């Protein structure tokens, strides 16, 4: 087959491509589908289940059969519809779902076994033996029944996302979409016109009707030119609006570089979230086919698609073509093909009163009942007046009427209604608010009706926005409406395909009916009808009409399945928005991150933060060697640790003290200026929530700290309390977590080290600056800083805060200046060890299951004032819990202690009923010289010295533990106050 | 004057800057930021002669600028005063207000277009769910940007500032950098 005359292809630009390794050429303006047809390739794929040879059915995104693997290497993309793959020079494509060649697919034996592969067979067949499912059945089924394959390599291309806002979004750039966009844009409204094709015009590009005595493409070009000149309109070609979401938000994928061999500097695709005040859906319509026996032979396609290939791309699948129709539209294809010199061997029209509209044989009242030609159609069986005969033809166009493309209008559970006159479902107007349907999508399929309804829809939308729009002058256009005869399939022997992509036949629907899978939603799940990449665009209505025949219910009674986004397949890459690997989510870095990196620190993720976990030194073979060294160096000399990640909230105002009194279970109003207090916040149910310190910098100014993990939630809770619970209070809040680099300096030499950097005139001696003091001061020659004498490690310790940009330099200064004092940077691991040794509760203890009493802080909950959770913390059920935080030490010092172990009385049975608590934190303590743990033990405070069992019954581990004080280091706190 | 040497939010000794086609994105470490919040019953001050703007607004005055951050709350910007105690200077001008230093809580990226407002709008469309067309000069808001929270200020038709959390500066810079780079590819 050579090219026909005409067409919207650029014959001066020839493009080379390969399909299954064979080299072909096409033209600029071609799709892969049209270029393959132009090269006489009719066989383009194998079907999903039976591996039947398949060719094109459609010319657009509804195509169920011609799915290919596009591109190669890491860019290989499965299940690409050849009809929407824009041809470029160097394109490579392969057919998929076959073993062997496309012409001789070994899996075609499935077709011979088809009686065993009827709908629902998986559910019935592969049930026994059970063990075979995962190892044998599933892999075999997946291999045999499937679509394209993945490259198993990472996608090398970039993907983008973006946000657009407009008054009117016009979905579809055909006759209705263009008049809608023109009407709205002329009024000055902000308009976006999105079309999935690479060329505006929609169905106008596929038809030969004139507009105002000129080819429709001339009118389209004129409109396009005007639209391009209007700054308030944005044309988005190659953009599929795939879903209508809440509040006027539409999802769209722009294929920015899919039509290029490689994206170059561009993103491959962009995911747009479009917020539109109003939208016009002008998505057109999709033609129906009419199932008959063997109707899946390559060469059998929709008549409208055949016409589109001939008129737009100047190709026809064969020299001799027949048409099977139940309405006038099939005749249009016959006329257009005949005009291009294609032999039309007959139009088989199911209507008994049908007449030919041109010079071709007509079979009025005829039906096509069978087809031959395994790898390509050779002849069709025509039944007419009780007689059957075979007619030679290499292609058959089928027109069974048109289904409006109402998917997006049905996305908010809009339920389409049946239009008896049109014999199709049309939108009922109950879809997404603000969405108006126009043109063929609304059942207004004649060119004149589409042009008019597009403009009118835009006018209505703008009127709702109080914008005035004038109707544009519309060109004269054809206005023929043809009611299709109700013909949903041709009864007969043999398999008649309804859903080509999922290999669902009329027989399968009968079987579904027989097995009582009659509601459409059951029909869909049980037969897989309407699933996969095409979502049944050419199948669903036909299938439910056949089901309605079987049940005796009407089509509207039978109804449609629910429509959901996406309208066409959306790649996970573009949904991901382009951020992968370490950029998948943003990371927070501490002010000393770069310094720690240079020291060779090992980092650990702590929520969004990256924190230095430990600082290995040459010769240290194991992380614990490093951590033990850091702990011992801190307890002996001085350790330095970045603790910026702890949340900081600045609290000011006349009522700041009272406000904090109500948030913390202990009192903060009585805190003296220049002092810090440990504070515990409770949840409303009385469970311990978060702890930290509260420093009073002035009468009306506090700075509170939170744990790293709860910094956000605590700040949110504080804002909630300020704005909603007690709006009458004079309190102002703001987070200062990132503003200050805060560095812990801990160990017996801490004060000596700090004295070397604190500016003259500030006295930080034990007397002048005792335990739990805080002050503003300057360091290192005038740098404003804050100093807090607080300790997490149990040592003499301080935290010094400076503006974050100086954190790096301060850390460096402390380590260098303190070298002779044994200054050692330590990470979160040593921090954890030291707080366990000191018996300080942390996230493991504040796990949302523990009360202040359990933590040994019951008396902290003030009874002199009310605070969030205070009353509930005293409720019977909670107060009766006898479990208390204790220290645990193995009787045999060589045995490890594991966090998560449960605690049992020595020798008792180990069950839920005898469970006495659990170990919340455990580590190796270099200070004690063995593993130690913190845990919650029933009557724990009365059991000091008792030997109990720590057990992990799941793994059969168990260890004898002695109950000891939780304070392994300096139990009377002398070091803190030295 | 302290002898400690500061680093920028991106970890450099000098501010970073990149050119992407018509867009130049640079780190601005020199602007001081201070939060000003009205105390109960306080009258709205006009610090350093600046009339504090309403919701969604940013105004620039003589060496200082301000944007609205919440009811009775503003962020005051002072160009070139990042290392001094600008909070203390502002407190004198705004009695009855809660003043909190915020300079190093944030990182400021200034984006300048060499080709009018169009590239700024195109970049905004890829970064934030704001109506770029309606976000004219003098607009300011806080919004989500690549899973981060950021202030976005339209300083002029051809100038945009994005202010993100300092600890996320590297992630924010990466987001701006790769978005602008792809946009450059698309604008070509």
From TrEMBL, chain A:
Q: Which UniProt keywords apply?
A: Oxidoreductase
Describe the location of the Aminomethyltransferase C-terminal domain by residue ranges: 883-970
Domain SoxA A3 stretches: 493-578
In the record, biological process GO terms are: tetrahydrofolate metabolic process
Give the coiled coil ranges: none
List the Pfam families: FAD_oxidored, Fer2_4, GCV_T, GCV_T_C, SO_alpha_A3
**InterPro entries membership:** 2Fe-2S-bd_N, FAD/NAD-bd_sf, GcvT/YgfZ/DmdA, GcvT/YgfZ_C, GcvT_C, GCVT_N, Sarcosine_oxidase_asu, SoxA_A3
Q: Gene3D superfamilies given for it?
A: 2Fe-2S iron-sulphur cluster binding domain, sarcosine oxidase, alpha subunit, N-terminal domain (3.10.20.440), FAD/NAD(P)-binding domain (3.50.50.60), Probable tRNA modification gtpase trme, domain 1 (3.30.1360.120)
GCVT N-terminal domain segment(s): 593-865
Q: Which molecular-function annotation in GO is an example for this chain?
A: sarcosine oxidase activity
Q: Tell me which NCBIfam families the record gives.
A: soxA (TIGR01372)
**Member of which family?**
Belongs to the GcvT family.
Q: Which PANTHER family match?
A: AMINOMETHYLTRANSFERASE (PTHR43757), AMINOMETHYLTRANSFERASE, MITOCHONDRIAL (PTHR43757:SF2)
- What is the protein's given name? Sarcosine oxidase subunit alpha family protein
State the species of origin: Paracoccus alkanivorans
């Amino acid at each position: 087959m050579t090219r026909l005359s005409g067409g919207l292809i650029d014959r001066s630009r020839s493009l080379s491509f390969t399909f299954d390794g064979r080299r072909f050429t096409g033209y600029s303006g071609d799709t892969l589908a049209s270029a393959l047809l132009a090269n006489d390739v009719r066989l383009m794929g194998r079907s999903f289940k039976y591996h039947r040879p398949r060719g094109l059915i459609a010319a657009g995104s509804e195509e169920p059969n011609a799915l290919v693997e596009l591109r190669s290497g890491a860019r290989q993309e499965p299940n690409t519809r050849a009809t929407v793959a824009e041809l470029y020079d160097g394109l490579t494509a392969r057919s998929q779902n076959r073993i062997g060649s496309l012409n001789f697919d070994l899996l075609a034996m499935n077709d011979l076994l088809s009686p065993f592969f009827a709908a629902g067979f998986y559910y019935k067949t592969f049930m026994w033996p059970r063990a075979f499912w995962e190892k044998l059945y599933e892999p075999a089924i997946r291999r045999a029944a499937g679509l394209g394959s993945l490259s198993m390599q990472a996608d090398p291309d970039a993907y983008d996302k973006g946000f657009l806002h407009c008054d009117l979004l016009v979905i579809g750039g055909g006759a209705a979409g263009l008049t809608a966009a023109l009407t709205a844009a002329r009024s000055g409204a902000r308009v976006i016109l999105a079309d999935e094709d690479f060329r505006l015009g929609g169905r106008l590009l596929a038809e030969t009707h004139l507009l105002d005595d000129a080819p429709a493409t001339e009118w389209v070009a004129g409109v396009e030119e005007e639209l391009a000149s209007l700054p308030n309109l944005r044309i988005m070609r190659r953009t599929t609006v795939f879903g209508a979401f809440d509040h006027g938000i539409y999802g769209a994928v722009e294929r920015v570089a899919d039509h290029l061999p490689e994206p170059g500097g561009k993103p491959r695709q962009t995911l747009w979230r479009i917020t539109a005040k109003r939208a016009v859906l002008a998505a057109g319509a999709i033609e129906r086919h009419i199932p008959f026996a063997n109707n899946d032979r390559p060469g059998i396609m929709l008549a409208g698609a055949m016409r589109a290939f001939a008129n737009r791309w100047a190709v026809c699948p064969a020299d001799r073509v027949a048409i099977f129709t139940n309405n006038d539209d099939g005749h249009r294809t016959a006329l257009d093909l005949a005009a291009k010199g294609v032999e039309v061997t007959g139009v088989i029209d199911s209507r008994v009163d049908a007449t030919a509209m041109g010079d071709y044989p007509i079979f009025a009242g005829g039906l096509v009942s069978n087809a031959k030609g395994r790898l390509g159609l050779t002849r069709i069986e025509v039944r007419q007046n009780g007689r059957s005969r075979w007619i030679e033809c290499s292609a058959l166009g089928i027109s069974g009427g048109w289904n409006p493309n109402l998917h997006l209008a049905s996305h908010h559970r809009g339920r389409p209604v049946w239009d008896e006159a049109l014999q199709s479902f049309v939108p009922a107007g109950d879809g997404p608010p603000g969405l108006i349907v126009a043109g063929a999508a609304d059942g207004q399929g004649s060119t004149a009706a589409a042009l008019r309804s597009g403009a009118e829809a835009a006018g209505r939308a703008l009127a709702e926005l109080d914008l005035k729009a004038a109707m544009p002058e519309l060109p004269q256009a054809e206005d023929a409406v043809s009611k299709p005869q109700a013909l949903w399939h041709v009864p007969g022997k043999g398999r008649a395909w309804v859903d080509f992509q999922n290999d669902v036949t009329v027989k399968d629907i009968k079987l579904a009916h027989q097995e009582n899978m009659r509601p459409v939603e059951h029909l869909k799940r049980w037969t897989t009808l309407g699933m996969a990449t095409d979502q049944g665009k050419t199948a669903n209505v036909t299938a439910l009409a056949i089901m309605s025949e079987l049940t005796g219910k009407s089509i509207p009674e039978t109804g449609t399945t629910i429509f959901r986004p996406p309208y066409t397949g959306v790649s996970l890459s573009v949904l991901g928005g382009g951020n992968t690997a370490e950029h998948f989510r943003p990371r927070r870095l501490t002010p000393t991150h770069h310094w720690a990196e240079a020291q060779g620190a090992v980092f650990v993720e702590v929520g969004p933060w990256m924190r230095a976990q430990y600082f290995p030194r040459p010769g240290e073979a194991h992380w614990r060697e490093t951590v033990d060294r850091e702990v011992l160096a801190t307890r002996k000399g001085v350790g330095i640790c970045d603790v910026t990640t702890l949340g900081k909230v600045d609290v000011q105002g006349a009522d700041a003290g009272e406000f904090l009194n109500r948030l913390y279970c202990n009192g903060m109003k009585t805190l003296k200026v220049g002092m810090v207090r440990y504070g515990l916040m409770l949840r409303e149910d009385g469970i311990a929530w978060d702890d930290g310190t509260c420093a009073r910098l002035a009468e009306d100014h506090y700075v509170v700290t939170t744990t790293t993990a709860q910094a956000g939630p605590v700040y949110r809770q504080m804002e909630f309390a300020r704005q909603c619970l007690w709006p009458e209070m004079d309190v102002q809040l703001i987070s200062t977590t990132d503003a200050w680099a805060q560095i812990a300096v801990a160990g017996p030499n801490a004060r000596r080290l700090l004295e070397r950097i604190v500016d003259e005139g500030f006295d930080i001696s034990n007397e002048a600056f005792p335990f739990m003091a805080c002050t503003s001061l300057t360091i290192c020659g005038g740098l404003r800083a804050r100093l807090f004498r607080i300790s997490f490690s149990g040592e003499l310790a301080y935290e010094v805060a400076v503006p974050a940009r100086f954190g790096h330099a301060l850390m460096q200064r402390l380590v260098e200046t303190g070298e002779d004092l044994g200054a050692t940077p330590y990470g979160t691991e040593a921090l954890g060890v030291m707080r366990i040794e000191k018996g300080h509760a942390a996230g493991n203890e504040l796990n949302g299951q523990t009360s202040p009493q359990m933590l040994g802080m019951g008396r902290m909950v003030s009874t002199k004032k009310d605070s969030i959770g205070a009353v509930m913390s005293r409720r019977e059920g909670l107060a009766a819990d006898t479990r208390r935080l204790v220290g645990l030490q193995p009787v045999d010092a060589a045995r490890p202690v594991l966090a998560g172990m449960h605690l049992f009385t020595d020798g008792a049975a180990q069950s839920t009923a005898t469970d006495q608590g659990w170990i919340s934190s455990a580590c190796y303590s270099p200070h004690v010289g063995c593993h130690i743990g913190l845990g919650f033990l029933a009557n724990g405070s009365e059991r000091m010295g008792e030997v109990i069992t720590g057990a992990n019954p799941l793994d059969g581990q168990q260890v004898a533990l002695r109950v000891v004080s939780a304070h392994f280091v300096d139990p009377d706190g002398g070091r803190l106050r030295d | 004057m302290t002898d400690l040497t500061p680093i920028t939010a991106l970890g450099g000794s000098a501010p970073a800057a990149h050119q992407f086609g018509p867009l130049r994105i640079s780190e601005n470490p020199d602007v001081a930021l201070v939060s000003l919040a009205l105390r109960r019953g306080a009258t709205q001050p006009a610090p350093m002669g600046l009339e504090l703007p309403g919701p969604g607004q940013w105004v620039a005055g003589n060496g200082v600028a301000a944007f609205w951050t919440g009811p009775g709350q503003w962020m005051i910007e002072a160009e070139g005063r990042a290392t001094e105690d600008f909070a203390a200077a502002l407190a004198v001008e705004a009695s009855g207000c809660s003043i909190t230093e915020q300079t190093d809580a944030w990182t400021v990226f200034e984006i300048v277009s060499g080709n009018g407002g169009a590239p700024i709008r195109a970049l905004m469309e890829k970064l934030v769910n704001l109506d770029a067309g309606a976000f004219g000069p003098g607009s300011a808001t806080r919004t989500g940007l690549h899973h981060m929270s950021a202030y976005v200020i339209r300083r002029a038709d051809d100038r945009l500032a994005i202010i993100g959390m300092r600890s996320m500066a590297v992630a924010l810079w990466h987001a701006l950098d790769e978005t602008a780079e792809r946009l450059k590819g698309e604008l070509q």
